[in-house]
Amino acid sequence: MAAVHESVLDAIGGTPLFRLARLGAGLPAPIYAKAEFLNIGGSVKDRAALSMVLAAERDGLLRPGGTIVEATSGNTGIGLTIVGRQRGYRVIAGVSDKSAPEKSDILRAYGAEVVLAPTAVPAEDPAHLFNVVQRLVEEIPGAWLANQYDNLANPDAHVRTTGPEIWEQTGGRVTHFVAGVGTGGTVTGTGGYLQQVSGGSVTVVGADPESSMYGGGDGSPWFVESIGHFLHPGTVEDRWPQAYRSEVVDAFERIPDRESLLTARRLAREEGILAGPSSGTAVAAALRVARRLGPDDLVVVLLPDSGRSYLSKVHSDDWMRQWGFLEAESGSEAANSLRSLLAGAGPLVAVDAGATVGEALEALRAVPGGVAPVVLARAARPYGVSATEVVGSVSRAVLAAALADGGAKPGDPLGGPPGESQGGPLGALLGPALPAVGVGQSPAEARAALGGAHEAVLVLVDGRAVAVLSRARLGGGA
C-alpha cells in the first residue's frame, strides 16, 4: 500500500530508482536513474530546502513570523517555498532572469514573492541576483538568507537521506555515482556518503557543462540550467561554493549543450521520463561512464528535476531550433535551412566590447557586409561566442563616418568614455544586438527576424554564434 503522511514535508525523499533499459541497451554496465523529480516540489532541492530550514530554526536564525530569502534558478526556491509556507514563513525568491519562466510561475503558485534579477553581470554589480537578495535580507526585519551555496545543511541533507537510499536500493552494489554539480551539495553529500560507506570503492563522477569551470572550462555561458560554475569576465573575485568539496569528485565528464539537451529529450521519448536539461547532462555522462565499465559494475545517475519546468525550452521544438540545437537531417527542410548559406559566409568576426574604435574598424575591414556582433571581452573563447554574450553590434560604415567627421578618434573606446552611458556621443556607434536565428531555420524565417531595422542576422549553432548573414545574402528582396 502507498504511504500515508501527515504533511507533504514527510513525503520529501524516498525516491525510486529506474533502470535506463533503452538508453543503456547494449552497454556493459547497467544504469539506474534516481528519480528526484518525484519529490513533492519536483526536484532534488526539496531535500536541501527542508534540511536548511530545520537547521536555521534549531540555530535560532529563523524565528516565527520570519521571512525566508534565497537566490535561486528556481528549484531551491520552490522547495523553500513549500517548506516555508507549511511552517508559517513568508518566502521571497530572487530568480535569475535566465531561468525558465515556468519556474517563476510555479513559485508564485506555491505562495512565493518573486524578484527577477540578472546573473550574467559581474559578481560585484549591485544588480546581480546575489546582491539583490542580500539587500532584501538587510532591509527586512526577521529575514533569513538560506544561502544554499555556502550552507552546509545543503550537503548534509544528502549525507542523511540520498546517499543511504541509493546504498540500500542497490544492496551496496553501486560502483559509480554520477550527478551534476551546481551548488555542489548533492554531489558532495551523496558522493561523500557513498565513498565512506563503501570504503572508498564508489567512484563519483561530476557531470558538467563543457564550458563550466568545475570541469576545467573557461566559465563562458551554457544553456543547461542549475549546474556548472559560470564566470563573468568582469568579475573581480571568483568564489566557489562552500557546499562543494572538490575532493569528493573523482572525475568529470564535460558534456556539450547539444548532447545534454538531446539526451533530455531522449529520456522522455525512449524511457518515459520527462526530466530537465541537467538530467540530460547527467545521463549523457552516465552513458559515457557505463561504456567503459563491465557487467559487475552498477551506475546510479541522479535526475535532479522534472521537464515540466522546461516545456518552453528543451522540450520545445521551436526553442531548440531558435538557438541552433535542432535541425532537419535530410530532405527539403534541411536543404532550405540556413546551413546551406554558411559555406561562403566566412569565419565569424566578433568585436570585444573593450576594443577601441580603431581596433573595431580594423577588424571589420574584411567582413562581408561590414557588420559584426559586439561581445563581452574574454581573453580566450575555445568554445566559441555564446549568443548570451552578445551585447550589441557595430558597423564599418558608421565607424568610418564618425572618424571622418571628427565625432570619434581611433583610440576612443568603442563604448564611449568610462562611466558614460551608451547614450553619450560615442555610445551612438554601438548598434543593437543583431537578431539571432538557429542554423536549422529557413532564410524566410531569418528575413522575418530582420524586420526593417537590421541588415544582418547572427546565425547560431548549439547556442553559439558562427556567422553573420546579410540581408542581401538571405535573398528574397528587401
Q: What would the principal axes of the Cα set say about the shape?
A: globular
Identify the strand order in the major beta sheet: 1-2-10-7-8-9
What Rg do the Cα atoms give? 24 Å
Give average pLDDT, whole number: 92
Low-confidence stretches: 417-426
How far apart the termini lie comes to: 68 Å
Percent of residues in beta strands: 15-25%
Q: Which bin fits the share of residues in helices?
A: 25-40%
The number of strands is 17
How many strands, what sense, and barrel or not for the largest sheet?
6 strands, mixed
Number of H- or I-type helical stretches: 14
- The helix/strand class is alpha/beta
Descriptive report:
By secondary structure, the protein is an alpha/beta fold. The chain is 31% helix and 17% strand. It is built from 14 helices and 17 strands. The strands form four sheets. Strands 1-2-10-7-8-9 form a six-stranded mixed β-sheet. A four-stranded parallel β-sheet has the order 5-4-3-6, with helices on both faces. A four-stranded mixed β-sheet has the order 13-17-16-15. Strand 11, helix 11 (357-364) and strand 12 form a beta-alpha-beta unit. Helix 1 packs across helix 2 (75-86). The longest helix has 17 residues, at 153-169. It is globular, with a radius of gyration of 24 Å. It starts with 16 loop residues before the first strand and ends with a helix.
Concise synopsis of the structure shown:
31% of the residues lie in helices and 17% in strands. Strand 3, helix 2 and strand 4 form a beta-alpha-beta unit. Helix 1 packs across helix 2 and helix 5 packs across helix 6.
